[in-house]
Amino acid sequence: MKLFDGGRAPNPRRVRVFLAEKGITVPLVSIDMGALEHKSQTVSERNPLKRLPVLELDDGTIITESVAICRYFEELHPEPALFGQGALGKAQVEMWQRRMEFNLLSCVAQAFRHIHPAMKEWEIPQIPEWGEANKAKAVEFLKILDGELASRKFAAGDSYSIADITGLIAIDFMKPARIRVPEDCANVLRWYQAISSRPSAAA
Ligand SMILES: N[C@@H](CCC(=O)N[C@@H](CS)C(=O)NCC(=O)O)C(=O)O
What is the domain-level CATH number for residue 165? Predict the structure, then answer.
């Protein structure tokens, strides 16, 4: 088994943080995204979308999409449960994982890709107005999240889950996207401090 990894890029890191929480080691194949190696044959023959991460199993089977890769490992190594437990717990994690992905990570990514000069060759056409609109959407969601986190420790309840991992990745990605957590979002700041202090955050 090997994981084609993209270094500092958010989605590959999402899988690395997940694996670190599980205590699983998977051999990594480093792909230099800065040198556009993700567009090389090595990646494109495994993932025609030319995106990372990509997991290759020993029999050559390919799994792409960060959450699909994480789910695969959750089935193989159920503890600690990062996709929730029981009918309600699993639904709550799914709900918050999707909210974090669609309303935060995706908006931050759109802001970065459509505004940052370094992304000119990646996002064609680059539409700065779309990037700005997504910045505002990300901040709007953070305010909603702040209200939710007033009554619980983690995104989906009292246990850490993949929803927190997606949130951590999104908030760290806000730095290059030049988006700040509003100062009055004290609950988001407290939650971010807790999840970013976990050893897995260094992955
Ligand atoms: N939905 C995919 C997204 C994968 C993705 O967009 N990865 C980025 C790195 S964070 C990528 O490979 N980008 C290459 C490009 O845009 O050309 C997932 O969750 O894994």
Answer: 1.20.1050.10
37 lines ligand 1 (CB under 6 A): no
Ligand 1: which atom is nearest the Cα of residue 39? 17
Q: Whose CA is nearest to atom 11 of ligand 1?
A: 51
Model pTM greater than 0.90?
Answer: yes
Does ligand 1 have an atom closer than 6 angstroms to the CB of 10? yes
Cα of 57 to ligand 1 centre, how many Å? 20
User: Which residue, among 54, 9, 38, 22, has the nearest Cα to 172 in the 3D structure?
Assistant: 9
Model confidence pLDDT, tens digit, residues 133-179: 999 999 999 999 999 999 999 999 999 999 999 999 999 999 999 99
| Contact call for residues 137 and 103 (beta carbons, < 8 A) | yes
Judgement on whether residues 18 and 117 belong to the same structural domain of the protein: no
**Which element (helix H / strand E) includes 55?**
strand 54-56
Residue 123 in 3-state DSSP?
coil
